[in-house]
Fold this protein.
Amino acid sequence: MLYKLFVLAEKNKLSPIEKIKTASDGLRGTLQESLADAITGAIREDDTALIKFHGMYQQDDRDRREERTEKKLEWLYSFMIRLRLPGGLMNAEQWVGLNHIAGEYSTGVIKITTRQTIQLHGIVKAEIKPTISAFNTLHLDSIAACGDVNRNVVCSSHPSQSILHKEVFSYAEKISIMALPKTRSYYEIWLNEEPLTGDQKKEEADPLYQDRYLPRKFKIAIAIPPDNDVDVFANDIGMIAIEENGKLAGFNIAAGGGLSTTHGNPATYARLASMLGFISGEDKIMKVVYEIITIQRDYGNRSDRKLARLKYTIDNMGLETFKAELEKRCGFPLEPARPYVFTKREDHFGWKQDHTGKWYYTVFTENGIIKDDGKIALKSGLLEIAQTGKVFFRFTCNQNLVLSDIQSADKNVIENLLNSTGIEKHTLQASLVRRNAIACVAFNTCPLALAEAQRYLPSLISKIEPLLEKHHIEKEELHLRMTGCPNGCGRPYVAEIGLIGTAYGKYNLHLGGDRFGERLNIKYKDSLDEEGILTELNGLFEKFSNEKMDGEEFGDFVTRKKIV
Ligand code: HEM
Ligand code: SF4
């Protein structure tokens, strides 16, 4: 009761974005007017919040801000478009289309994100509609890929690893559709659909999101043990598929994971999802997911966006109260969680075969960036492979790519292409630390970046590799992740080594996450520059090499030794 009073009090001071959402007429706002305004490359301020729900962020080229300001020119605005791609799957025809869309309308770079989808950057305002329309002809959309709604639903990527994969994967699609906003605004604004009138408007009634949507972004991940490639506990809802006698028995459901923090705001924290219990049967599984979202809709903090994620709602309510409310809304209890074990979070690089005989090749794509450069013509090579029509493209939450569902008869063709394009060599030659590393986007597009990430991490790794070799630990599957700010888009808080940007060229060094995403790391050193990072790591690697127990991993070692 007290909690409800608190929520009511909070409601009286809604954050400005809450007002924009409810006044938006189904996320339309003044987006049409913003698009029509040829004087500026930007859109109106309120629309920058709304366009996220359509899968886009307004950005500007931060490398050129100073020069533009000096010349008294408007900043160089453009848009990032992120696809909704449940479970991260695309067919070959869609990849070929994506390749052309990227070349025609964006910077040309295809970016695999840490949540298993694709982003294109640098799309100018006038090219948004043609881009969305081109995606639409490929049966791809960007609805709810960003914004205060359920975002891309991720699912373990490697079909060769589990006979359950197909069935579990279908839940990613089903949940994504269940949690789509009902408004037709995406189709009206970007695809010229006739606006609804009169009674037709009733079709847009949205029992899940109503007119206020969620207090904050919402993320769902599905893991298929023994793989935790999705970092299931970093999500608002984490679903763990439980296999019994070769069949999907149901899911363990965890809730309240979320990583972002704010420097200097002690009220914010990274949190792993808490286990609620087990549920079986499709109707009940879907109901549990739905009602967790409604609780967050009704009880989440709508006045302070920094404290609005489900993790804070759960901690404010108390886990038991939250669970009781969930069971009340569902009308049935959850069973106790069933046993499972995670033994791997990395991708399964190279060739693998599944139980039906189909083949899979996991390609290393450094920080998910697909382009042709001096090192490797990855984009052209993948286009050639897609043009055979003999593969599917699956994206991993580790920012890599699985060429999938290859028939035995076609394996040779793909193998030859992997060879001739240099993709196989590129994948196999990369060191383990490089293959497993993750960096977020940061500069030059992310408006929130304090430090570099994806543009810098490759060169830092080139300096870390010799240290690992010097201490004879280069065969360790070390997990190192870097982000340009504490929002944590590259999940640095669950890495063995996390580097989190504090200022240009400066990073907090976090240590001690485990290798399976089941333990958060802890800050070890503040705001180190490159020299500081390398000096610290050199000392730690030396100690690890000399003092580790048999089979002990780096994150466990620094924890056991109480280094953090
Ligand atoms: C308050 C918290 C957060 C804010 C404000 C935020 C904001 C942003 C922004 C502005 C971008 C666009 C960067 C660009 O493309 O230039 C971005 C990218 C992204 N964010 Fe976040 N983010 C937050 C937390 C997270 C967390 C915790 C995750 C995942 C665990 C995440 C996942 C992603 C992904 C997958 C991308 C796409 C690019 C990539 O793979 O690096 N975000 N975020
Ligand atoms: S972690 Fe920060 S810098 Fe990196 S993409 Fe996310 S918001 Fe931007």
Summary: The chain has three domains: 146-195+204-345, 350-430, 435-560.
